[in-house]
């Protein structure tokens, strides 16, 4: 069963559970926020975030969008004197986009089908949890050792579905890889992909650390 959902194209991928701050300055999205604020307080205030495949976030042209997106559930709204809004949103449910309507509202409306969060092969998913947790900790440490980036790593959950999304959000990947993780149908499959991805990245980071150490050893510490 499909439902209509306001769509917000972005040059990033939103994942379930991921916090996404947004600055709303375009009038069409200001109108969307005003409509959300007018809803009863007991209703979920949400819209759909869809990553852009080609095109721009701003402007009248309809960008090419990826098929799978994630709802952004509004947690906090701050309205500014100039009419802008600052939002704090959290990723909610995954959905697949069908037809897109760009005429019925100032913003895009999509016919979307919400996707279930399934574990897939339960035994394989549970078996993957400990090695993926270990690899993620090694990956975070490797990034810190190389000075590439500091990851504020949360406690890694034991639940396969939750862990698969934490890894997808925390790993420093490009848009295509993150989008593929969002679109992966179940936790077992997602953890399998993440295990391979983390092994690759940990290996690359070890090479960088080894090369860096070798270069340091070549430097003559003598001032003469």
Automatic annotation (TrEMBL):
InterPro entries: Lon_prtase_N, Lon_prtase_N_sf, PUA-like_sf. It comes from Frankia canadensis. This is Peptidase S16, lon domain protein. The lineage of its organism: Bacteria, Bacillati, Actinomycetota, Actinomycetes, Frankiales. Residues 1-202 form the Lon N-terminal domain. Gene3D superfamilies: 1.20.58.1480, LON domain-like.
């Amino acid at each position: 069963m499909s439902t209509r959902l306001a769509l917000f194209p972005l040059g990033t991928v939103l994942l379930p559970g991921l916090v996404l701050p947004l600055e709303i300055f375009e009038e069409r999205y200001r109108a969307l926020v005003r409509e959300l604020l007018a809803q009863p307080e007991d209703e979920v205030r949400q819209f759909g975030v869809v990553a852009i495949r080609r095109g721009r976030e701003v402007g009248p042209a309809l960008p090419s969008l990826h098929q799978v997106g994630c709802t952004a559930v509004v947690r906090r709204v701050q309205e500014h004197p100039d009419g802008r809004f600052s939002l704090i949103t959290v990723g909610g449910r995954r959905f697949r986009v069908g037809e897109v309507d760009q005429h019925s509202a100032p913003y895009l409306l999509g016919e979307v089908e919400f996707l279930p969060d399934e574990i897939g092969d339960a035994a394989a998913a549970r078996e993957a949890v400990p090695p993926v947790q270990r690899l993620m900790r090694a990956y975070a440490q490797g990034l810190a050792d190389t000075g590439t980036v500091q990851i504020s790593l949360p406690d890694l959950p034991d639940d396969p579905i939750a862990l698969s999304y934490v890894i997808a959000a925390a790993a420093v990947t490009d848009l295509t890889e993150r989008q593929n993780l969002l679109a992966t149908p179940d936790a077992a499959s997602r953890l399998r992909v993440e295990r391979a991805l983390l092994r690759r990245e940990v290996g690359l980071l070890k090479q960088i650390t080894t090369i860096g150490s070798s270069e340091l050893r070549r430097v003559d510490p003598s001032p003469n």
